[in-house]
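Deliverable D4.2, example record:
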Amino acid sequence: MPIIGSVIKGIIDVTDVLSGEENPIEEQQEVLKELLEKAAETQFGKAYGFREILKSDEVPKEFSKKVPYFDYNGISDQWWYKLHEGEENVTWPGNPDYFALSSGTTGKTSKRIPVTEVMIKAIRWAGIKQVLALSNFEFPSDFFEKGILMLGSSTDLIEKDDHLEGEISGISASNIPSWFRGYYKPGEEIAEIDDWDERVEKIVEKAPDWDIGGLSGIPSWIELMLKEVIKAHGLKNIHEIWPNLEVYTSGGVAFGPYEKSFNALMGRPITVIDTYLASEGFIAFQSRPETDAMKLVTNNGIYFEFVPFDPDYILEDGSLDQNAPSLTLSEVQEGQDYVLIISTVSGTWRYLIGDTIEFTDVARAEIKITGRTKFFLNTVGSQLSVNKLDDALKELEHALDIEVPEYTLCAKKYKDGFYHSWYLGTNADIDPKKAAKVLDNSLKEANKNYKVARSKALEGVKVFVVKPDVFYEWNDQNKKKGGQVKMERVMGEEKFSEWEDFVDKQS
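Output generated by the structure prediction step:
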């Protein structure tokens, strides 16, 4: 009998019951006041009058009135550069212990985002809250005795001046609590390997020695790792080597486009739980099985604001118009897209994280990520968010009975007008014209703006088919394999031209 697992499951169940009801709106009001109080004597806090804001009867409104929106370039050029010149108390008391390196999905140059010790504790606590939420999922007791394979970036962080640098998944993994180390796979030695292919090779070698109950990581890289394990050990599916695999914690990108190809690697269905861990903090996680939406972490060092997603508010570089209105959690509505704005214990203030979200349940503060502000496809008025593109792709997979784990597209101007030019990453043999028709019809039915655009300047859809490996090699050339690296779903014409040149060279 799995005694230890029963004890752990019992503790989780009891803790979850004792935690009581939460009030996300009240929690957010307290978080904002705590952030302002702690940062009041920083250079940023003095410049924007945090002490005066705290005296207001309407602190959230006064805060939004006094402090402008910042994207990464804005806050880095105006404030964070001082941290690299040795100044202290810039946007948060003291100096950050870490900088999270993030190339995201938009280029080779890494962002350097401050990560304070307080944020590390907040991320750890959010992780514990997610573990406690497992009481809502009916996992067997022995699940809590199995290993958890976390495939992130290297934990071998770079020492620089008085801090360490690395991707947030590597920083988080290097700070896992001691009680979790017995469950954590691939273990510290393998996790420190910087080269992704070498790290996967070691995982493949050790795979038969592990009893894995859970996986965690970005879908594309998890899939590649699983395929290598299956191939190396002559398996039909991953359950032949890890029979107790019960759950996959997805993150970084929408899981939808990977669902079919991921399930093809399984011997039986497993539970997929979404998380939202960004370089700027642990934002949300799926807390119950009845929905695939994620619950915002509203009491843990992050204050959220929401700007209604209107193309008129988004500037060409993806930043926000300073006149764009912001809403608090008490003012949002379900079923509308919002640009997510955060202020945190790492000294990000009214920060455009780059994602758009939709509330599925305001009372529970549950959201879905709907896209990226820079990847919103609005050429000739089509107004398509990434989630609409993902939905169209899933319909294509179903209609043609194929797996398409990767894609990218651009609204490209040809001689006869604009087309949405899709590149599909699949090993299936498909008719591009048939695929184009399915995508076009799906988007017409799902989006009235797209349908209108198709009757005017948008001529249609073009489809090009390449192997999924082309996408992985593109990431390897432009960024790096593994870790937090994500494929851009929508490209501008200049970047798309580079992509097409790259594809031609791979042919």
